[in-house]
Predict the structure.
Amino acid sequence: MSDTLVEQVAPGERSAAAPFVACFLAWLFPGLGHVYLGKKVRAAVFFAVVLIMFTLGVASDGAASLIEERQPLTFLATFDNLATGPIDLASRYLTYGRIVYVLPGEEGDPRRTELMERLRTKVRSVTYEYGSTFLLTAGLMNILLILDAFDIATGRKG
């Protein structure tokens, strides 16, 4: 049985699917872009991989990254967390008690103090590093899935 609903697209041929729609759907919900492209089995496997990584990250006390202007790599880590799509909101809420992406800049700001205290609580966990790594891995995996959906929709990959 074929992995597609309509037709197999040979590498080099252009699919009828809109590449950016497939990418948006892949970001919105892991595997959804592949469902849109008719790759249901691939979508199910990819969904499971991203969801398992994300769940392990949250269960292991991983923390969603926050942008801190004085630390440039936090921009990349936060972007990576955002790559999991709307499910990133769950990890942010579980980590900080609210949806937040940027650490307030002033040292005396009570919001900063509260966020840092919540983060310190996570960091004290024995599994914090593993959990945060699983969350980052889920984001990186979903970036690859978005690119895979783009390649399939443009005909670069069958």
The radius of gyration is 18 Å. The helical segments are 19-28, 32-36, 40-59, 73-82, 88-96, 110-123, 128-154. Confidence is low (pLDDT under 50) at residues 1-7. Residues 128-154 form the longest helix (27 residues).
